[in-house]
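Morning run. Coffee first, then this:
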Amino acid sequence: MIEPLLKVARKPATIDGGATVRQAVAAMVEKSIGAVGILDAGKIVGVFTERDLMEKVVHAGLDPEATVVTEVMVPTPICVTPKTHRSDAVDIMVKNRFRHLPVADEDGSLIAMLSLRDLLDHQLTRLRDEVNSLELYLSADSPGG
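And here it is:
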């Protein structure tokens, strides 16, 4: 059974902790995602995001080719599990001002990357479907209607 959170999350972009910022950016661009999971021995040890690139690399004047991603990543990230409810994931993201949240198993293996945008898109789709369904119901001409 697919857990509800995994219906919204994406397959993650990942790199090894020894990679450069340039390699991290290449992984994000390749997957069209705004964050990359940093792995050590298959376990998530950090997250590097577009915001980290802007604030910790570009603004700080660091060389993306020479800067190792572990120097500028968010270490020991907060992760959720596939069983986490979507509303709880949103609460964590809003409270901590995250736009990306790793989904990992109990052993720390990264399964997916959840983005606030994907959560909002999913919710908007559900609401549009509900409105369309209600409009069809209300506009149906039936006996006694």
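The beta strands are 13-16, 35-40, 43-49, 74-75, 100-104, 110-115. Good start to the day.
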